[in-house]
Design goal:
Its main location: mitochondrion. It is found in: Mitochondrion inner membrane. Belongs to the UQCC6 family. By secondary structure, the protein is mainly alpha-helical. It has one domain. 77% of the residues lie in helices and 0% in strands. The protein is built from two helices and no strands. The protein is elongated. The longest helix has 26 residues.
């Protein structure tokens, strides 16, 4: 395995890293709510494209 680690150590790190990534993404979507105004931005860009 990479850097001479065992399979169990490697898989533990992989699972923890994946779980942390999913938790971070969920936190961003719950706290910061980046997709709430997505429709507004899409409409604005469509208007810009039609005008320009």
């Amino acid at each position: 395995m990479p850097a001479g680690t065992s399979w169990s150590r490697y898989m533990t790190f992989f699972v923890v890293a994946l779980t942390t990534m999913f938790a971070g993404a969920q936190c961003v979507h719950v706290v910061y709510r980046p997709l709430d105004d997505l429709d507004k931005y899409i409409e604005e860009e469509e208007i810009k494209i039609k005008q320009g």
